[in-house]
Amino acid sequence: MSAGVINPSPEMGAAAGPRLELRGITKSYPGVRALSDVSFGIWSGETHMLLGENGAGKSTLMKVLCGAVRADSGEILYENRNVTIASPADARRFGIAVIFQEFSLVPHLDIAHNIFLGRAPRGPFPGAINWKQLYADAHRVLDLIGFDIDPRESVHRLGVAQQQMVEIAKALSQDAHILVMDEPTAALSDHECERLFAMMARLKADGVAIVYISHRMAEVFALGDRVTVLRDGKLVRSLLPDEATPDELVRLMVGRNVDMTYPRHFRQPGATMLDVKGLAAETGVAGIDLTVREGEIVGLCGLVGSGRSEVARAIFGADRITAGEVRVFGRIHPGSPTHSAKLGMALIPESRKAEGLALIRTVSDNLLLAGLPSLYPSGLMRVSFGRATALDIVKQLGIVVASLQQQVSTLSGGNQQKIVIGKWLAAKARLFIFDEPTRGLDIGAKAQIFALIDELVAAGAGVLMISSEQAEIVHVCDRAYVMRGKRIVGELARAELNEENIVRLGMH
């Protein structure tokens, strides 16, 4: 046990003040101050909403709380006593569990092993695991959150939403007194969100303190008991939800007014860029008919698991097509990502870090990657030309970087997403497939991404956009297809495009 660490008591009265408090926390990295004199209290039986743009300091503050990083200065109090949380093991001793937005699962282990990683029940002799107890315990935790799945299922076979549920189960298995949730609903369907919120209500009733990071204003006012806003590493204000309106909270977060309706200039569409007929793929999607025309944004919506991402991957050539045809600019698509890039089609995937970026490479490397064949047709690279191309895209998209040589993993989510889009601009793409383009982004970054998409279609591009947030589909898209059971069950024209119709088709 680290010096200064005390064993927490199991009960804590809410009236006694914060269960755990961070005071004057400051943390700097080379060239940037991530936190500056931030104080933050966590009360038992309450949900404390933590708001701020990407890069505001939320993740750093939570890493200090869970022992992943050490603050340069400041103090931590547990039940009004100074303590040291020097490691994740220290945090666990205080009952602190964190569900990060970026998953920390081991893909090729099963669900049960991931939930109890490093804590599996012991078998009859040293080094052995009590398998029966392991799977029984996993079943118990999964039942707690209403996740009906075999705990023997390998994690790499799960979708993003299912992996999120495993992360939640993993945190709950630690009998946490303080549960930190970073954008837990970003990949969940409405039904899964309802189950999560019901589970949170049960935990609060049992005295668990919840820290909830979200970019969704509806969640802030529906779930929050307290709200703290960070901006540029500093605490702007802590308040109760009824002390502010959504617009006021947005202004506190970004320091300016932001239009959250994502206004668009709708135009008369041009020629057909993408024509899909009778598409079926090995992933189970079938009978897919859709078109995307020049100058329009076409939505693809439905519940998580309805087959939206599978359609996008099949069109792009990432998954094998078993029937039907895909025509891009009037030409039959041969069915591979390489040919997609050559034809001028781009896929911006749901998981930018896992599938869209080379995280250990530089900004310049990532921006040039997809366009190498067109930028250097002879195969000979010209460093000065590549640098000029990357710099032009950085300026065009307003990507905030220290230099072109900065490692992409160090950037905020919004800037990373711009780089995923930017690499396809370097490749001269004209047809874009966006799969959850604003997942995990703050309100200001979302507005920037949608403004960028609008600029692309204004310049003649065509866009197929997947989003789990129905408001995005309604405000942004010219029309939309609704999926259910891995099939398209309806198309909504602009005049019919509202949340009620999306839900009616998606859940019929």
Walk me through the structure.
It is a single chain. The chain has 508 residues and is α/β, with parallel strands linked by helices. 33% of the residues lie in helices and 23% in strands. The chain contains 18 helices and 20 strands. A 6-stranded mixed β-sheet has the order 6-7-8-3-9-10, with helices on both faces. A 6-stranded mixed β-sheet has the order 16-17-18-13-19-20, with helices on both faces. A hairpin with a 2-residue loop joins strand 9 and strand 10. Helix 4 packs across helix 5. It is globular and about 70 Å long.
Please give a quick description of this structure.
The chain has 508 residues and is an alpha/beta fold. The protein has 18 helices and 20 strands.
Features of the shown structure:
about 500 residues; alpha/beta; six-stranded mixed beta sheet; 20 strands
Averaged pLDDT? 86
Helix content: 25-40%
Structural class: alpha/beta
Number of helices: 18
- How many strand elements? 20
What is the topology?
Elements: E1 20-29, E2 32-42, E3 47-51, H1 58-65, E4 73-78, E5 81-83, H2 88-93, E6 96-99, H3 111-115, H4 131-144, H5 160-172, E7 178-182, H6 190-205, E8 209-213, H7 217-223, E9 226-231, E10 234-239, H8 246-254, E11 272-281, E12 288-293, E13 297-302, H9 308-316, E14 321-328, E15 331-332, H10 337-343, E16 345-348, H11 352-356, H12 363-369, H13 372-375, H14 383-397, H15 413-426, E17 431-435, H16 443-458, E18 462-466, H17 470-476, E19 479-484, E20 487-492, H18 499-506
Parallel strand pairs: 3-8, 3-9, 6-7, 7-8, 13-18, 13-19, 16-17, 17-18
Antiparallel strand pairs: 1-2, 1-4, 4-5, 9-10, 11-12, 11-14, 14-15, 19-20
